[in-house]
């Protein structure tokens, strides 16, 4: 690459986030986090930068220097921005010269692209630094208010936001003034490209995923003080979510989770810089409802990338694709922003839990691959990326996650030092002339020690009293003397004194075992020791695709789902105290045996979830009392009885999507597709297309048509069902529940439609510009008496 290293002092995130210490002023000593970070840098340096940059050069009219990575189709360039952020972050954290060299090289290349866009795309491209496919057609039309190309593309502003953030981070963490200049020019482009749009058009445009666009404009405002950027930040704020959540109204059911989270990061940044309380109320309420009502025990949220409704929370157990890593990446950003405005211990409690149990666990400890979905389904597994292969969104955020482990250990405000995380580290608080060292083996032991290693200064040490330590159990000793306090869990204990070299603060943090339930599904529980989620390995059978290729859907596990009814079931009458049945395993910290009666027994050796890799696992356990277990087995018998009764009522049956049943029923179709999902076959039709079957009535007239659908769907389905050529019903799934389970819907057939007919043709007809639901099977059944 041939870029000479500039010799300048690294400054860091304090320029935008004044309560945070520069990454270079906090040194990781902890092997757990330091090893993860160092492995991540090793993996990052295996990537070819010119391949990341190829989409940017192509769209600017410059010849690419290498073939681009096979990004997700339509998202070329998005990972390049994440990679630039990762280089800047890791350079700041470690002073790694290779990271610095790569960061500088990318800035030079992006500058060349930005300059070429000003010449080659002068009508719309002045300041443009994007690599989005077909940029010329997209942005030239967009600037005129024509959204036709925009609406048929996959998340253009989401894509661009990654390079916005990359350039900002190259200045913020890497101290590149050139990156700041490029960033602000790109922000000016973002203002100009939307300048002709009405407020209504902006709101329409923002219905598509757009990443953290409000955040970057707020950052530009803080950098420059120029009011135009704050105006832009508010203009790019999606009012459809800002307004209701600022009033405490939760409209998140069935919305795409990581589309929403970055919006609220932006809202909170706007609030921080403008003191606009509406934006703060929205950010705060969003955080509360996501962390309290929509998150699992390891801190992650969403299934199938969406926030489930209360009724659909069982999807966390049923589905493979559990919480997405990107969501936690962005939730931690929002948490830091909220904490800066109001340093409440609840934010640090959440941050700690998510950092250990989700973020740390999403990196493979040997090959360094990143995880997209962390399944909570009993006995399922996770898939990892490989360098130069998969280019998922969670590869991009994964590149950044493991360089920021030292970012939130300590924060400061005025004369106070906050101890937020118990991670072995050293802090150089230059402003105070103080150096301190944190010695701990946490979480393998429930204590930590702070030692002042250099300097003398008066300041207020604020020690977090975690929510996982019992009331009255946290002890503090200052130079061996007990420090009295009356604090409660989830608070900060103030130790205000003049500190000098040699002072020691010992903090005793007794850890105990607890359980947490799946939100709205109390019969499924997880075990935690302190903030650490405990899981159990359950086998290595059929781990298909565990290291993903670069296919479009490689992030999904290809191995079979193991039946839920064959998973372990805990049978215990005293469920409230079931955590007390965890017995520590000698000489193995954080390892436990569960002394509980178990159906479908496995070797119940529990250990930290972040240590489980390359295996199927249990995170949540079905837990029932003895009478509840009897009811459970009785319900299985009831389901079997219902199945047999349905078979008796069935007059004719078609397994849609299956060759022989469809052939046997003389299928006709147009614009129709088929596939396999949920271990079953389906058929659908789109845009005026149809599929139909000739079905036997057995001369019965008291008939219903029963259709099996999968209740979770992408987009609205609108279609009609015909018996012969007469419409039976029009179906619109706009108000369906979006719960991941099969539903059988029955439609009563009027007697005149079947009277005197031995066979009828049942047709599913998609409406124009719409599609049918995926139909998994259909039955003609006799109406129950």
TrEMBL record:
Span of domain DUF4986: 539-621
Location of the Non-reducing end beta-L-arabinofuranosidase-like GH127 catalytic domain: 25-406
Pfam annotation, one family: Beta-AFase-like_GH127_cat
Non-reducing end beta-L-arabinofuranosidase-like GH127 middle domain: residues covered: 417-511
Source superkingdom: Bacteria
Hydrolase is among the record's keywords: yes
Keywords (A to Z) from UniProt: Hydrolase
Domain Glycoside hydrolase GH146 substrate-binding: from-to ranges: 645-781
GO BP: carbohydrate metabolic process
InterPro entries linked to this entry: 6-hairpin_glycosidase_sf (IPR008928), Beta-AFase-like_GH127_cat (IPR012878), Beta-AFase-like_GH127_middle (IPR049046), DUF4986 (IPR032275), GH146_SB_dom (IPR046544)
GO MF annotations in UniProt: hydrolase activity
Protein name (record): Glycoside hydrolase family 127 protein
């Amino acid at each position: 690459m041939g870029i000479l290293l500039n010799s300048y002092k690294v400054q860091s995130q304090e320029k935008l986030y004044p309560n945070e210490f520069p990454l270079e002023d906090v040194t990781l000593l902890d092997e757990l986090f330091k090893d993860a970070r160092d492995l991540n840098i090793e993996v990052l340096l295996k990537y070819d930068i010119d391949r990341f940059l190829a989409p940017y050069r192509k769209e600017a009219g410059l010849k690419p220097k290498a073939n681009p990575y096979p990004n997700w189709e339509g998202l070329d360039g998005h990972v390049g921005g994440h990679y630039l952020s990762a280089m800047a972050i890791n350079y700041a954290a470690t002073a790694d010269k290779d990271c610095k060299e790569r960061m500088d090289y990318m800035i030079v290349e992006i500058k060349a692209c930005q300059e070429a866009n000003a010449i080659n795309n002068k009508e719309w491209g002045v300041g443009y630094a994007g690599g989005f496919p077909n940029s010329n057609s997209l942005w030239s039309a967009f600037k005129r208010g024509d959204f036709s190309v925009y609406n048929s593309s996959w998340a253009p502003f989401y894509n661009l936001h990654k390079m916005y953030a990359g350039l900002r981070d190259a200045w913020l963490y890497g101290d590149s003034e050139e990156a700041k200049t490029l960033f602000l020019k790109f922000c000016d482009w973002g203002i100009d490209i939307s300048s002709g749009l009405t407020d209504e058009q902006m709101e329409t445009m923002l219905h598509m995923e757009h990443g953290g666009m409000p955040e970057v404009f707020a950052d530009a405002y803080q950098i420059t003080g120029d009011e135009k950027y704050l105006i832009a930040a508010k203009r790019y704020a999606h009012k459809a979510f800002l307004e209701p959540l600022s009033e405490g109204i939760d409209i998140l059911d069935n919305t795409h989770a990581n589309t929403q989270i970055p919006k609220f990061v932006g809202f909170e940044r706007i609030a921080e810089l403008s003191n606009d309380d509406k934006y703060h109320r929205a950010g705060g309420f969003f955080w509360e409802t996501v962390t309290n009502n929509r998150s699992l025990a390891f801190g992650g949220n969403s299934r199938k990338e969406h926030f489930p409704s209360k009724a659909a929370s069982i999807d966390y157990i049923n589905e493979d694709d559990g919480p997405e890593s990107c969501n936690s990446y962005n939730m931690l950003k929002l948490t830091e922003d909220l904490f800066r405005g109001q340093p409440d211990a609840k934010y640090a409690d959440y941050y700690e839990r998510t950092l250990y149990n989700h973020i740390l666990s999403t990196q493979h400890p040997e090959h360094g691959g990143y995880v997209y979905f962390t399944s909570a389904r009993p006995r399922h597994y996770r898939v990892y990326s490989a360098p130069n292969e998969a280019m998922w969104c969670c590869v991009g955020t994964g590149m950044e996650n493991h360089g920021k482990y030292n970012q939130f250990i300590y924060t400061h405000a005025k004369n106070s030092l906050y101890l937020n995380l118990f991670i072995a580290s050293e802090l150089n608080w230059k402003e105070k002339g103080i150096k301190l060292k944190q010695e701990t083996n946490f979480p393998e032991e429930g204590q930590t020690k702070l030692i002042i290693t250099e300097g003398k200064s008066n300041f207020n040490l604020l020690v977090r009293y975690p929510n996982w330590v019992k009331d009255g159990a946290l002890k503090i000793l200052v130079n061996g003397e007990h420090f009295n306090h009356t604090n409660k869990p989830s608070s900060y204990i103030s130790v205000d004194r003049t500190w000098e070299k040699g002072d020691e603060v010992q903090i005793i943090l007794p850890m105990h075992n607890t359980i947490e339930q799946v939100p709205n599904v109390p019969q499924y529980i997880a075990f935690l020791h302190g903030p650490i989620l405990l899981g159990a390995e359950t086998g290595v059978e059929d781990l298909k695709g565990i290291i993903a290729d670069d296919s479009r859907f490689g992030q999904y596990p290809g191995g079979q789902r193991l039946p839920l009814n064959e998973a372990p079931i805990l049978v215990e009458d005293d469920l409230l105290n079931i955590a007390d049945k965890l017995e520590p395993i000698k000489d193995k910290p954080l390892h436990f045996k569960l002394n509980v009666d178990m159906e479908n027994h496995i070797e119940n050796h529990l250990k930290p979830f972040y240590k489980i890799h390359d295996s199927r696992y249990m995170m949540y356990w079905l837990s029932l009392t003895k009478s509840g277990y009897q009811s459970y087995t009785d319900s299985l018998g009831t389901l079997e009885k219902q199945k047999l009764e349905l078979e008796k009522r069935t007059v004719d049956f078609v397994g849609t999507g299956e060759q022989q049943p469809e052939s046997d029923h003389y299928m006709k179709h147009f614009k129709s597709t088929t596939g396999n999902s949920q271990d079953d076959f389906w058929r659908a039709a789109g845009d005026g297309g149809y599929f139909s079957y000739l079905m036997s009535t057995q001369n019965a007239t008291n008939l219903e048509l029963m259709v099996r659908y999968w209740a979770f769907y992408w987009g609205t389905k609108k279609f009609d069902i015909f018996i012969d050529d007469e419409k039976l019903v029009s179906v619109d799934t706009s108000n369906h529940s979006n719960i991941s389970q099969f539903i059988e819907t029955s439609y009563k057939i009027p007697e005149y439609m079947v009277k005197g007919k031995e066979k009828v043709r049942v047709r599913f007809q998609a409406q124009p510009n719409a599609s049918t639901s995926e139909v998994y099977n259909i039955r003609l059944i006799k109406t129950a008496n």
